[in-house]
Amino acid sequence: MTKKDAIQVFEDRHVRSVWDSETEKWYISVIDVIEVLTDSANPRRYWSDLKIKLEKEGSEVYENIVQLKMKAPDGKMRFTDAADAEQLFRLIQSIPSPKAEPFKMWLAQLGRERLEEIDDPEQGIERLMEYYHRKGYSANWINQRLKSIEVRKELTDEWERRGIQKGQQYAILTDIITQSWSGLTTKQYKQFKGLKTESLRDNMTNLELVLNMLAEASTTEISQKERPESFDDSKKIAHRGGKVAGAARKELETQTGQKVVSPLNAKKVLKK
After folding, report:
1. Residues 163, 148: Cα–Cα separation, whole Å
2. Is the whole model's pTM more than 0.85, yes or no?
3. Computed from CA positions of residues 90, 91, 92, 93, in that sequence, does the dihedral angle turn out positive or negative?
4. For site-directed labelling of 244, which of 35, 38, 76, 225 has its Cα 20 to 30 A away?
5. What is the pLDDT of residues 81-123, one digit of tens each?
6. Where are the domains of the chain?
């Protein structure tokens, strides 16, 4: 299975998913779907009870559930139950929810859009711009965010060339870069902004995005020049790349007398 992790959004709720390019299917976290449909405080328990019920009924739905690694709330890659659209349609029949029909429509649209994006990648960018516009982000912020995605992609491509493993090793290097420029780990940064499962980058100010881009772009440039052969070497380079942006942050704070790392998040900004 050639996989690509992604976070989808249904009614402002994050749904973890993995795209399998060989079968051209999305595999979506069952726990996330249950949380969206039921608003359960304990979706894992709900799913556990539902599995027992389905098994007693002789349903084949559970037999076709697969386990895939997806990013957990703590940032680590962990195995979780996942299902493709066909299995989810069947599973949803067993979950009483007023959101069932809208979710099924969203699920069908998701599959169509991904296939269209493969044929025309610009459609993916346009949809992302539309999403941020609907959320109320400024045009300037959206441009910065799209550029940050490009910079991030160049960095992860470089890590892949150096044999860095996706998941935990990517998370460790990202954490080093973040702490080196901002003075906070990714977890501390999210706590500072009052975030839980929300994307940190989607809650950065323009200036935070720019410095984060500088940190990641600097890491990419150093890595391309030095061609590290071990994970430890890449960790040192991540620290050095982050320090480039860290020095810029400190100098700017000296010049303006204001802190760059801000407790502002999207909810606070977009309410204004």
Report:
1. 23
2. no
3. positive
4. 76
5. 998 887 888 888 888 888 888 877 777 666 555 444 444 455 5
6. 3-119, 124-270
